[in-house]
## 1
Amino acid sequence: MTEWLGLPPLATAHGGQIDNMIGWVHVFMLILFVGWGGFFAYCLVRFRRSRHPVANYAGVKSHTSSYLEVGVAVVEAILLFGFAIPLWAARVDRMPSESESLVVRVTAEQFAWNVHYAGPDAKFGRTDIKLIDVQSNPLGLDRSDPAAKDDVTTLNQLYLPVNKPIIVRLRSKDVIHSFGVPEFRVKQDAIPGLTIPIWFVPNVTTAEMRTRKGNAEFQYEIACAQLCGLGHSAMRGFVTVQSAEEFQKWMDEKVKEQSESAADPFK
Ligand SMILES: [Cu+2]
């Protein structure tokens, strides 16, 4: 029902609910706009100066406007308590269990997205601020920690399997950024000092979306949605949604590649 809004195509399981909400807000706001606009035009004509050279100090006697205002407040309360808060609670409160999800750490910095996977052991390796090297180790991952051996890190590349709950643990190294993927109907600020979890289930692979849009170069894009400094507009990441098998293959290759180069940093 929300095609008329021209939103980006949907690619997550929960996105339809968000679109419905956006659709209803627009419908109610349209009614309000037409109502108040009409009332304004009516007043301009009805109380024009030529008919009312002197102001009427008694004012309106009827209660119609009070009833209308109460009506508007009731509709707004329904929007808020009936739609917005339950939807927000479902998105924020009811996280899927970690065992059935893929947990990814995404750490924003000026001006890039650092992605960190726990690897096959599902345990994130230790990170230490002292080990941070902007070029070679932007997350300060301690490869000598056994849990870190199979960890995978990427820059601006988020690979995800389709139809699996994804939990993104969002952090920031410097200022406030915002993780926004329009097709996923996901947007969350990354705040320095906080780890904020968000979750979603991507249900359209990049390949499917390319065919659907007839654009062989289409990429899901992580757009930083908070003005975070001079390079803000260049702060783009890319999301690649793949089938479970393709994703596993990519992950295996990365684990191999990165654990080997960590074992021999001069290779
Ligand atoms: Cu940013």
## 2
Amino acid sequence: MASPQLTTISPSINPSKPVNHYKAYKPRPFKKEERDKVTILYGGLTWKHERLIQGALHNLNYKAEPLPNITRQDLDAGKELIDVGACCPTIFTTGSLVNLLKKKVADQGKDEVNDKFVYLTAGACGPCRFGQYHESYSMALDGLGLRDFRMFLLAQDELDQGAADGGGLEINMPLSLGMIWGILCADLLMDLEYMTRPYEVNPGQTDRVLKESIEYLYDKFRNRPSRGKKLGPLAWHLMTNYFTRALRVIRKKWEAIEVDHLRVKAKVKVTGEFWLQTHEGEGNYNIKRWLEQEDSEVVPPPVAVWLHYLLHPSIRKLEHRHSTSKHPRLQQMMLKALERVYRGTYNRFRKALGNLPYELPDQEELRRLAEPFYHFELRGGEGHMLIGKVLHTYHHKKAHMTCELSPYSCMPNTMSVGSMANVLGKYPDLLYAPIEVKGDSEVHALSRCQMILTEAKKRAKAEFESVLKKTGLTVDAIRKFEARHPELRSATYRIPHRDCAGVAANYVLHLVNDRGLASA
Ligand code: SF4
């Protein structure tokens, strides 16, 4: 029998042709002396967050410009230039950078763009694509023929990264703290915005006051006093009343907005993947504005919850003795102290705004609520928080329903939506609308949300009617009471959370229990 022939596979290498090995992207140095000529581009948050971050950057004498808000065309531009199978936020954000750079190249030429702009983006490592965003950006830069364009990463777990190559960009305490404080202030104003606009009596007034407030805060960030580079800025940011004073001025501006809290609205908590839930625009079908048009009140997701969450994996590791730290006890104490300071700062800012914005949820409680369905060590995306937030909203009656925005091709979100089947089995009356977002199926996504929203609206109406019945009050009687107490119709009048999800129902209970309004 003839022995089987072995086939030799010879690599088709042409020895005369040089081999082009893969080289990871490395930006050219950004030199200190270039600082006043180079504009830092950044993006990914709402216009409110980005404007305050711009204030913090201008304060440190950087030229800075946020990327324009995402449009549907960014999705197409992203799809053309990055890897197949990328998740929808990666495609949108890459496309947004691509479209801006294309425009700048057309106006100013390639060399000018390479020399006059750099891109600053958040970076991380981890199991999901967030750790690879910069690879997608560099792939797109290659596709555009802009390999020389400079891009820098802002690690989300390091406040003091030092100077990037060349010293033009220093990711130090004043920069990081300015950005974080800007994010916290923007979050709080975003809460005010979403809790006021659905009830405003004069259409457009909330947006006007919001714009004015953000510009006022931008000036405050731009004119922050300098306190050195290390502990000085840390101590100043933690102890100063500079920001609380500014927020009190803002509260006065909001006081003038007249609202009608008797409008019965379904309250909708928005959660989901970080970028998608934060975004306000075509990247998520403008779903927050759409929900408002559909007669509901949105509870928006603050970025501050994510920053708070980032502290917790290290705390958990230390608790479960999975850390390699030599002084686990000490490190645990320090992290817990840091967490108290963080929450304390957020609460100080809330207080300056009359405690109107929502409190940060307790991370420990989110973990506990999610535990039977999703393990906290499954990192990636928002991890266990998605389940935790839905159950937190449900148990504390924070909203009538939750709308979860899940990006197309996102593994962590797919897992959490899958686990929700188990949650819904245990809590069948929980109203939950998981919306898959891929940029091009708007009608399908919104109609899916509308199905659950219809039920949420019915619940809001039933809740209000049952409170009126229980208290024996009528809308007419409440209107007469409001006429004698005009402060009740101000946007800064705080309605305590009672046993209902809806504002109108809580308002009636408050008038009876705290303001002594009795039925005739
Ligand atoms: S969480 Fe999902 S959508 Fe967001 S970066 Fe990771 S993989 Fe992409």
